[in-house]
Design brief:
Helix content: 25-40%
Low-confidence stretches: none
Order of helices and strands: EHEEHEHEEEHEHEHEEHH
Bound molecules: 1-O-pyrophosphono-5-O-phosphono-alpha-D-ribofuranose
Largest sheet: 6 strands, mixed
Number of strands: 11
Structural class: alpha/beta
CATH superfamily of the largest domain: Periplasmic binding protein-like II
Number of domains: 2
Number of helices: 8
CATH class of the largest domain: Alpha Beta
Strand order of the largest sheet: 2-3-1-4-11-5
CATH topology of the largest domain: D-Maltodextrin-Binding Protein, domain 2
Distance between the termini: 36 Å
Strand content: 25-35%
Length: 214
């Protein structure tokens, strides 16, 4: 990246559909149909501003190392992977959901050492440690809701949006660990070197978020 170029890393998929209108309101739009193309790097209508498309879990990595100046990343991934190397100046208030614990509807009141299945192992570890509860962590990469009914775990820590997935698998939500939404993150060095350019984008995005809320 050069001092006159601004590289923005966006999360592919569902979140992108909510992200692009906010960037459009902020005056930044890709020069081609980003959702139809197989490309991963897009020029925009603003000279020097480029958009990168990637998995959400990779956005913090690109921003941390400065390969992207700005990123849009889920708070779940920021909490799980830490925020070394970047600031988190803006909540876009999109892709909102909750990080929760959940248990089978008929779970026993207490077990000695709770077995918790999750892909968010750091979040789960911190949550139960703060409550002084001993757990055994079982790392899974998806379909967490299966784990309790197959006897693999007593509880799960996962993202809950509508609650339909929990319900369909005989689980109930218990504790809310964190409110999740997409956040704008900014590489710390970029914030110094490209300060005016980045503050301008942040101010416009903030206005876009406010006008959606109004
Ligand atoms: C998330 C999460 C749950 C589901 C919750 O999965 O892991 O499975 O959404 O949504 P609900 O409360 O509206 O039912 P997602 O579809 O994002 O896919 P993932 O398994 O790849 O995380």
């Amino acid at each position: 990246m050069t001092a006159t170029e601004l590289v923005i890393a966006l999360t592919k998929g569902r979140i992108l559909r909510e992200t692009l209108p906010l960037f459009e309101s902020a005056g930044i739009r890709p020069l081609e149909d980003i959702e139809k193309s197989r490309k991963l790097l897009f020029d925009t209508n603003v000279d020097g501003v480029k958009l990168l498309l990637m998995r959400g879990s990779d956005v913090p990595t690109y921003v941390r190392f400065g390969s992207a100046d700005i990123g849009v990343a889920g708070k779940d991934l920021i909490l799980e992977n830490g925020s070394d190397g970047f600031y988190e100046p803006l909540d876009l208030k999109i892709a909102t959901c909750k990080m929760m614990t959940a248990e089978p509807v008929d779970a026993p009141v207490a077990v000695d050492r709770l077995r918790v299945a999750t892909k968010f192992t750091n979040i789960a570890k911190r949550f139960y440690a703060e409550r002084g509860q001993q757990i055994e962590l079982i790392k899974l990469n998806g379909a967490l809701e299966l784990a309790p009914s197959l006897g693999l775990a007593d509880a799960i820590v996962d993202i809950v949006d509508t609650g339909k997935t929990l319900k369909a698998n005989g689980l109930v939500a218990k504790d809310t660990i964190a409110d999740i939404s997409s956040r704008v993150i900014v590489n710390k060095a970029s914030m110094k070197i490209k300060n005016a350019m980045i503050l301008d984008v942040l101010a416009k995005l903030r206005d876009a978020v406010t006008s959606v809320e109004a």
